[in-house]
Amino acid sequence: MAGTDRKIHLIITRQKDAKSAPYKEEFLVPYRPNMNIISALIEIQRKPVNANGKKTTPVIWESVCLEEVCGACSMVINGKPRQACSTLIDQLTEPIQLAPLSTFPVDRDLKVDRQRMFDALKKVKAWIPIDGTYDLGAGPRMPEKTRQWAYELSKCMTCGCCLEACPNVNAKSPFIGPAPLSQVRLFNAHPTGAMHKEERLEALMGEGGITSCGNSQNCVEVCPKGIPLTTSIAQVNRQVTLQSFKSFFG
């Protein structure tokens, strides 16, 4: 079939605002080779007409980089949390089902509020504390073996896919989720970040911490960057256990 004749069938779960009920709306979008989900949504934005030929409002979604770096375009595509920018139409079965991440509150249509994840990163101090008022120089060096696996953890783009796939992250649970746990491992391994290692581990001993992980291992299956999340969780669990003994015996 010629590219100009083929239509892509999309079924999108929409929501007018945070308080409205969700509903589904179908669209037929002209096909082009090498299209991704974002390009299909842009077509709907250009011509907001649904599959019944009725004029509607443009679908709202979030994206920034369009190259799987920012993590903003996360959504559920055919039942799996994925990045819309790197998901190609040709690799999907139709009709293509698009829905917002269910772990986070919906702002509108496919756009969600990921503040829960950012608050979790604050809770575990997922940063390297430095005094930036003067030149600190090159900083301490990391052993090459440590640098290699730490680089893999640093690929996290806070997309939220792992939180969406985790059955323990939901509105009724305070669990911070796999991504923040992996970031604890990353920053605890840094020579400067290690100065706050105990604070990060103490934060994981409280409500929503490491003990809330049910070890379903769904997170590592959906991570767009292939981050070894289950390995990180196991390592952090060991660190937390040792810290608990250290705190108990003073």
Automatic annotation (TrEMBL):
GO MF annotations, alphabetized: 2 iron, 2 sulfur cluster binding; 3 iron, 4 sulfur cluster binding; 4 iron, 4 sulfur cluster binding; electron transfer activity; metal ion binding; succinate dehydrogenase (quinone) activity
Listed name of the protein: succinate dehydrogenase
Organism: Neobacillus massiliamazoniensis
Family listed: Belongs to the succinate dehydrogenase/fumarate reductase iron-sulfur protein family.
PROSITE patterns hit by this protein: 4FE4S_FER_1, 4FE4S_FER_2
Cofactor(s) essential for the protein: [3Fe-4S] cluster; [4Fe-4S] cluster; [2Fe-2S] cluster
Residue ranges of domain 4Fe-4S ferredoxin-type in the record: 147-177
EC number: 1.3.5.1
Record keywords, A-Z: 2Fe-2S, 3Fe-4S, 4Fe-4S, Iron, Iron-sulfur, Metal-binding, Oxidoreductase, Tricarboxylic acid cycle
GO biological process per UniProt: respiratory electron transport chain; tricarboxylic acid cycle
Taxonomic path: Bacteria, Bacillati, Bacillota, Bacilli, Bacillales
